[in-house]
Amino acid sequence: MSDAVEIHVAFDDHDSPRGGCTTHLVSLFIYILLKETSINPLFLDYPLLIRLNPGVPWKTRGNGAVVLRLSVPRGREKDLVELAVQTSIEYSSAFKSRTSSPGLAVLMGGKAERMRPLYLKALTDVVTPDIAIRYAEKHSILIPKEVRGRGVIGALAALGGLISGEDYTYELLAYRVPDMWGEPRRISGGSVRRMALATEPLTFSNYDFIKEKPLIAPRGPDPVLLGIRGNYPWILRKSLEMLEIEEPIDAWIIYRSNQGTDAHCILRKLSELRPYQTACIRGVVSGKPRIIRGGHVCFNIKDQGGEHQACIYEPAKPLTLIGEKLWPGDEIIVQGVVRPPSLHEPQTINVEKIEVLKLAPKIVYRNPTCPRCGHTMKSAGRGKGFKCPKCGYRVKNASKIAVRIPRRLKLGVFTAPPRASGHLLKPLSRIGWEKKRPPPPPEKWFYYS
Ligand code: ATP
C-alpha cells in the first residue's frame, strides 16, 4: 500500500466586487499549506487555472476556476480538506458580497478522467447545479457542505480539465500587498510594451499594439496586480523581471491553463444552438453582410440543419472588416458565444473568430455599355431593354451582364483582438505553438514575500 494519496482540490466563485478573487484565495491557501502546516504536500502539477464557458451570464470576468493536484501523506487528506474549507470560509467572510457564491470540490485518489465529460459540458454549455451535484455523487466527489454555493459547478467541472493530450498555456499572476488594494497600479506601460515586443510569440495577449495599451492589469480593487500570459513558465519569470513595477509584490504564482487554446471550440450544428452556449460552426455564408448601427457587422450562416444570424460587434474591429468582405457561398467556421434573442434581434452568434475555408465567386450584374458611344446604359423600363443616357441609343433585347469582382478576402484564420475576446480564444500568434506532450513537473512556480 502506497503511503501517499492523490488529492485534487478545486475552488470557484470566491471573487467579489469588493476585492476578492478565486486565484488570490488559492495563493493564500498554498501559502498556509506550505508554510504553516506539517502536511507536506507534493504538487503533482502547476496550479491549474481552468476557464469555462465564456457565455454564462453570471460570470464576473473570465469564468475561471482553480484546481490543485497534490499528493499528501496517507492520513493527512482530512487535514488538507479542513484547511481548504476553513480558508475558503474565512476568505469569503472577509470579502462578503451578494454576487460571490463559493464552491469547493475534492477528488480523492486520482482518476480525474471521470470528470472530463462534465468539464467539456461546462466549457461549452450551461450546467445546472443539480446536474453538477448528481455527477459529483455518481463519481464520489466530496463537496464540503460548508462551501456549497454556485461555485461548485465550476469547481466540479474544472476537476476534469487539462488531464492529458490537451493544449495548454501558462499565466503568471502577481498579487498586491493589501495596503495597495484599490490604489492605481504602478506598472510602467512602456515596460509592458517592451516586454511584449521582446518575448512574443513566447508570450501572448499582454499588450494591445493597436490601441497602445497594456492588457496585463485588471482594474479596480482586485488583489491581482498583473497577469502575464505565455507558452512556458520560464518566459513568464523572465517577462516579470522585464517590467518596471513601482509597488511591492506580495506573491506570484504560475498557473497552467486552458486559456488561449480554443478548448471551447467543439463543432456543433446550428440546429443544436441554445442561448449562452459556445458556438463553433462550419457552414456557408447565406446572405450579404449587413453593417448595422454602431458599426456592427451581421451576416447569416447556413449548415445542413438550419440558418442563423452571426454578428461581429464593433469592439472586435478589425474582425468587423473581415466580416464585411464575406460573400454568399463562402465556406467558413465561426466561433463565438450564443446571445439569446431580444425584442429586436433573433438569437445571434457573437463572433470572435472566423476561419475562411473557401471563397465563392463574387458575381455582380451590371447594365451593358452602349455599343455606339461606350457609356453605361440605363434600363428603359420593365421589359423595354436599355437606353443610353448620353447618345439616346436603344437596345431592346439586351440583359444585364455578369461581372466577376476580385475578392479582397484571403483564406485563413481571423480573430478579434485580445482586448475584445474571451480568455479561451487561441490568438493567431499561438498557431504552431500548441502543446502536444504532457507538461513537465512544476518548477519555480511561486514566490511569497
Ligand atoms: P473570477 O475570474 O474572479 O473568478 P469569474 O469570471 O470566474 O470570476 P465567477 O464569479 O467565478 O466568475 O462566476 C462564475 C460562476 O458560474 C461560478 O459560480 C461557476 O460555478 C458558474 N459556472 C461556470 N461555468 C458554468 C457553466 N458552464 N454553467 C453554469 N454555471 C457555470
Features:
449 residues; alpha+beta; Alpha-Beta Plaits; Glycinamide Ribonucleotide Synthetase, Chain A, domain 4; OB fold (Dihydrolipoamide Acetyltransferase, E2P); nine-stranded mixed beta sheet; 23 strands; 19% helix; elongated; binds adenosine-5'-triphosphate
Explain what the structure shows.
- By secondary structure, the chain is an alpha+beta fold.
- The chain has four domains: 4-163, Alpha-Beta Plaits, CATH 3.30.70.2200; 169-262, Glycinamide Ribonucleotide Synthetase, Chain A, domain 4, CATH 3.90.600.20; 270-359 and 407-423, OB fold (Dihydrolipoamide Acetyltransferase, E2P) (Beta Barrel), CATH 2.40.50; 362-404.
- Helices cover 19% and strands 29% of the residues.
- The protein is built from eight helices and 23 strands.
- Strands 1, 2, 3, 4, 5, 6, 9, 10 and 23 form a nine-stranded mixed beta sheet that branches. A five-stranded mixed β-barrel has the order 11-13-14-16-15. A three-stranded antiparallel beta sheet has the order 18-19-20, with no helix packed on it.
- A hairpin with a 6-residue loop joins strand 18 (378-379) and strand 19 (386-387).
- Helix 1 (22-35) crosses helix 2 (77-94).
- The longest helix has 18 residues, at 77-94.
- The protein starts with a strand and ends with a strand.
- Adenosine-5'-triphosphate (ATP) binds at residues 12-13, 15, 21-22, 52-53, 56, 58-64, 101, 103, 122, 126-127, 150-151, 153-154.
| Percent strand | 25-35%
Strand segment count = 23
Give a list of the ligands. Answer: adenosine-5'-triphosphate
CATH fold topology of the largest domain: Alpha-Beta Plaits
Terminal CA distance reads 39 Å
Query: Helicity level, as a percent range?
Result: 10-25%
CATH C-level class of the largest domain is: Alpha Beta
Unreliable runs: none
Taking the sheet with the most strands, its summary is:
9 strands, mixed
Overall pLDDT metric: 94
Number of helices in the DSSP assignment:
8
Globally, the shape reads: elongated
Query: What is the second-level CATH architecture of the largest domain?
Result: 2-Layer Sandwich
Please give the radius of gyration in angstroms. 27 Å
Structural class: alpha+beta
* Count of the separate structural domains: 4
